[in-house]
Amino acid sequence: RRVHGDCSLFVSKMVWALRTVVCGVLLLCAHGAVLRNHRSMADWESASPSSSTATGGSGDSQSSSASEHFPLVPVIHSVSAHTAPTSGGSDVVIKGEHFDFNGQVLVGGKACVVTFFTKDELKCLLPAGHGADVELRVFNSKGAFAISSISYDAPSIDTYTQTLSTLGGDMLKLTGKNYDYSAVVSVGGAVCAIHKVDFQHIECTSPAAQAGGVAAVVVQVGNQRTVSMNVTYVAPPPPQVTGLTPSSGATTGEYKLTITGVSLPNTPQDKISVGSFDCVIQSQSEKQYVVLMPPGEGANLTVKLTSPALSTPLYGQQQFSFYQPTIDKVTPSAYSLLTNADIVINGKNFGSKNTVVTIGEEKCAVTVLSHQRIVCTPLVPSAGGSYPLVVTVGGQRSSPYEVVFFYPPAPSLSSQTGSTEGLFRLTLTGSDFGGSSGKVTVGGSACEVQSYQPHTIVCLVAPGEGAKLPVVVHPSGRAPLPASQFSYSPPDVHSVTPSIISAKPTELTITGANFGFTAKVTVGGQDCHVTVHSHIRLVCTSPVLPSGSAQALQVHVVNQVSTPHSIQIK
Fold first, then answer.
1. Cβ burial, residue 89 (10 Å; 0-12/13-18/19+)
2. Which residues does residue 150 pair with via DSSP β-bridges, in sequence order?
3. Smallest Cα–Cα separation from 508: which of 491, 525, 532?
4. Is residue 64 within 8 Å of 77, Cβ to Cβ?
5. Is omega for the bond preceding 498 within 30 degrees of 0, making it cis?
6. Which of 289, 238, 237 is nearest to 260 (CA)?
7. What is the C-alpha to C-alpha distance for residues 394 and 475, in angstroms, rounded to an integer?
8. What's CA 321's distance to the chain center, in Å?
């Protein structure tokens, strides 16, 4: 218990000692602060302020005497610049005292980049700006500063548009100096809406004026303004349409036309047409209309403007023409007189209505029409040859495109001859058989068609007789094709029984081939009366013949005759 008591006493003494030390330290700090504050106030009270002007005059600025605790405040004696354009970039010379190498210069809150430094002179590059008596500050590295001012050069007008319409909306162009984004242009006290400005140029849209006369043009830049210049307002000329761009275009339409003029009505109810085609107005003013051209066709079309503000329509001085039709390709370019196929024409500017296609003097009936393609069914001319194909659209003709109409040549035959017994296949090959159906004749007799294609026909030849018979293809619904020639084989005698006969009439049996249907037999030039007839066998009765002679026997079938066969007469 005693040890515990001694420890408690020791702790209590230490706490009181620590409290005493802390209080002493706090009192010493407070006393030091009071002394520093008193000295600082004395130093600032001894400072003498001065200022200067932008034109180089001297004045007061904030400063302080040097001390080991506080830097010297900059002092400005003069500010000068040879020129001070609103575009900036000119040298500004600042003279004074206590300039700091690490300080900076601000003109109207913008950095004036320091290019030269001494403790009593600075040079910097003037930033872009405007106005008179613009605040200029020179800072030291600790943030202390001196204040003065500088004036930018005032704006001026060198050249300008001198005549304006009382309707307003004219482009007023000014050239001069010391303009910038803050510029405000007034004409006769009314604002001229600026849409383009740089340091030397201004373009604005002139306001309207109630009556003709002179109005003052003034440019205000910041708190500076130009000397006023006079413009003359003149009454506008009567409304008229003066220009059209472009003056031609494709029949497809869907492109813009710009119609220019003076004193145009510019009301929401205005309508513009080109020829008979109504345009959609996309934008308009007293000087121009921009419209969307619809599809169309034709040449020398007049622009017409109607408006409730006009007693009569306005007509343009310049006319519009759609491009004339152009043919690039015609399929087929060689056309069979026997075919009934359509002609396809590819090209440009064929229009959408009132399009006519002619081949020679005849019309080609249009069945499909677009601006780039026409399908038409021709009226086949009566004779083959070359004919001009022309497309006419809205009175404009294309250059002619030559189309050849022809009769296809006679077909070639797989065989030029055949047995009079017939019943064999004959193949005909040609360039155009005029479709997919028809008939074939050989010497006027039907050749049974087994296959009919545009370029190939197979038919079964009937029994027949004769030479140089026409083989004709008859396409359905068309004139016959030129004929080929086919010949049945001539009669051929193989044997005659008996081969020796008496002078009196005797029955002869003749065997061979191709005796046809109408065979005649002669012996020594006299008729041997035929009693039995087939393609391979004949029986005839000989005439009275001179004894002891040799006579020639021949078989005659139409225009063909067999080789003579000799028989002996007793």
1. exposed
2. 134
3. 532
4. no
5. yes
6. 289
7. 39
8. 19
Are residues 98 and 48 in contact, defined by beta-carbon separation less than 8 angstroms?
no
pTM: predicted TM-score of the whole model, two decimal places: 0.51
SS3 380: coil
DSSP state of 276: T
| Coarse DSSP helix, strand, coil percentages of the chain, rounded to the nearest 5 percent | 10, 50, 45
Residue pair 539/510 in contact by the 8 Å Cβ criterion = yes
Question: What tens digit of pLDDT does each residue of 325-343 get?
Answer: 999 999 998 887 777 789 9
Nearest Cα to 225, choosing from 129, 86, 131?
A: 131
Taking CA 493 as the corner, what is the angle to CA 491 and CA 499, rounded to the nearest 5 degrees? 150
Q: In 10 A of CB 286, how many CB atoms?
A: 17
**Alpha carbons 183 and 220: distance in angstroms, whole number:** 6
φ/ψ of 110, rounded to 5, equals -105, 145
pLDDT in tens, 429-470: 988 887 788 999 999 999 999 999 989 999 999 999 999 999
Residues in the chain: 570
* Each residue's pLDDT tens digit, 240-294: 999 999 999 999 999 999 999 988 999 999 999 999 999 999 999 989 999 999 9
